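Much of our argument rests on the idea that a fold can be written as discrete symbols. The amino acid sequence and the backbone structure tokens for this protein are reproduced below:

___
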Amino acid sequence: MSMRYFSFQWHITDECDQRCKHCYIYSGNGGHVPEAMSRKDIQRVFANCLDFCEKFGRIPHFYITGGDPILHPNFWELLETFSAQGIGFSILGNPFHLNDDVCRRLKALGCEKYQLSIDGLRETHDFFRKPGSFDATLKAIHTINRAGICSVIMSTVSKQNIDEIPGVIDVAVENEAEVFSFARYCPTHSGESNGITPQRYREFLRTCDAKFRYYKDSKTYFDHKDHLWTLLDYESGSFAPPADAEPGKIYGGCNCGNAHLTILPSGDVYACRRVQDSRVGNALTDKLSDLWLNEMESYREYDNFVKCSKCELLPYCRGCPAVAKGTYGEFYAQDPQCWKEID
């Protein structure tokens, strides 16, 4: 049996050059004091992650992020450790500290992908982030590409920018981003909403699908990150559950509880960073393998999904529990943008 990948989204620092309006670190918390993991603690967490993967027969892939991880004083030392052990990693960061020398160094150490954000066209993006961020991001795409690293553009979709995302797709293609994807804004407290109705979101996905098809011969790969793509593809007939699917087995959809953990600068472990109150332990004091078998079990109770448990797409979709949790205060609540009617 082949080994499966396991992703660790590792926030090594909260330090950042921006204060994005939708950031889950700073949103609603103006007094937050940035944290950064010490060199000693980085080594302890890394060993804990490797122990986890050895125990469960998984191949680790680290998504190093923050804040902006490049601001951490031990950033390069950590990447050298990955390189020495042949461990795959990608960076989720900002564009401001990237140049040809930095990107060549990242490539030499084995960086596979560098993810940047574009959350609207110039005026909107710079409103969400900071003035000049849009142009700096476009410049960084070319710098990343020149180094031979896969450039990824991620958009966060909400009512405020949903009409601009098709234009962002144009920008990503024009600047030869290698991957484009988007995820919905996740409300930071129960009662908040990203402002998108189910039918509006379905219409949005169909518009993006038309764009993706139009650009099918471009250099950009379009990643269907949002699991509601599965529902759209099911409706169109381009996806069908396999006839030999095993009952009760999970084949796709949200990785929470299946192939992902988030680790914060404090060492706190979250089932998913986008799921509020999903702390399950601490990587400095708890074995990740123990957390996976115990505390994480509450994120694998698939029969508890209010709507998805009644849907034939349960093993493949489940929408976004983080958006459900942020909107309704319950992980297993229905996805607020799911338009499927369940009898």
About this structure: The two ends are 39 Å apart (CA to CA). The chain has a mean pLDDT of 94.
